[in-house]
Amino acid sequence: MASLLGVSMLGRTAITAAVMALTMYVVLGLDMSYAAAGGVAAALTAGLALGGPLLGRMIDRRGLRAVLPVTVVLQAVFWLSVPILPYGPLLGAAFAAGLAMVPVLPVTRQAIAAMTPAGQRRAAFALESVQGELSYVVGPAVVILCAANMSPGVVAWGIGTAIVAGGTGIALLNPPMRAGSEPDAGGPAGRPPRRQWLGAGMIAVLAMGFGTTTLLSGIDLAIVATLEEEGQVSWAAVVIAVLGVASVAGGLTYGALPRPLPTWVLLGLLGLVTIPAGLAHDWRWLCVAVTVAGFLTAPTLSTMADAASRLAPAGVQGEATGLQSSAQSAGFALGSPIVGLAIDVSAPAGGFAAAGLAGLAAALTGCLLSRRTSHRPPAPARREPAATRSD
Questions:
Q1: Which segments cross the bilayer (predicted)?
Q2: Looking at the predicted structure, is the pLDDT value of residue 356 above 90?
Q3: If I label 103, which of 16, 51, 70, 385 is the partner at 20 to 30 A Cα–Cα?
Q4: Do the two domains 1-118+136-180 and 195-374 of this chain adopt the same fold?
Q5: Residue 181: exposure state from Cβ atoms within 10 A (0-12, 13-18, ≥19)
Q6: Which of 21, 6, 13 minimizes the C-alpha distance to 79?
Q7: For residue 179, how far is the Cα from the chain centroid?
């Protein structure tokens, strides 16, 4: 587990920074507008959203080592060619790169579900969510720092190298994707029809994942807008860092608790504490306001990952984690435009309100769907045998 988390940390940090690296290349390398850079970022994000479940399904059917080398090679080709691509071809190439992105996050979550017994799974996913927060704090900041001191093309090469290294490391580790006695995903008994597992419970998890990342990406934009209005935009990085550190602390604390809370409760609380953050008009008070929201972020994300692993049968774990990753990517992509519109028609405080309401709406959806699921007879519990290799 330690080796897997260490290698995946490298890959996740690079993937988190990929959008920023492409943005810096378009703005500084091609001397184009931020709107044009947003087009490339949207193309990459769309590819990520569509490619997640497809790659997960391939891993379920063919095994990890049949899929990872292909994605690693395609990523190497893309990132090596970024500095020589004009804008038009770069749009198409970014979409293709998103489709074939090294599936670091889904593979890590699927391996955690395979390697940990039920009693330890929540703590393991809490640690994984902490890893995600660290990659979110470190990745974009490193790209911005490097872009200020070297060519944006070289920065793109560095991101590509880190993604390739992370994917290669996971392929060499070859973590188990299924527990020992679970059926082969490629067999008829190992792959149940989608209608049997993509029910109300799984849809609730996907909806809450979308709502959570919509809220989180909206918070970032609202922070920047608030501080820009107050002439303190240089402190935005500090406030966002405080948000990330608070999330790390919340994830570690939540992983040590003896009993979990329902995902919709955590997401509802996160939405509620986000709305009044718009009342802060100074970077110091904004740090205090986002600390509470940050403390709930990693626990919310970890409970969703845990829930998805429990709801998906062994033969479709890869597809299920890919769907969850796609839902979260879609939330990140849509959160900023939604909150940006709220800011434009009202004030920066409206951005926090829009982000919080998006979280509350997703929590309500998850609550209603979860209650619908709770009235059904419980599914047979998964056995916890020893883990086996993916191929």
A1: 9-28, 34-55, 67-85, 91-112, 156-176, 197-227, 233-254, 261-277, 283-305, 349-369
A2: yes
A3: 385
A4: yes
A5: exposed
A6: 21
A7: 24
CA distance 136 to 74: 24
Q: Which CATH architecture has domain 1-118+136-180?
A: Up-down Bundle (1.20)
The answer to whether the CB of 319 falls within 8 A of the CB of 202 is no
CA atoms in the 13 A half-sphere facing the CB of 174: 9
pLDDT score recorded for residue 185: 47
Do the Cβ atoms of 339 and 224 come closer than 8 Å?
no
Dist CA 27 CA 33 (whole Å): 6
pTM confidence score: 0.71
Fold of 195-374: Growth Hormone; Chain: A; (1.20.1250)
Domain spans of the chain, in order of start? 1-118+136-180, 195-374
What pLDDT shows up at residue 191? 66
Return mean pLDDT, the chain: 82
Percent of the chain with pLDDT over 70: 91
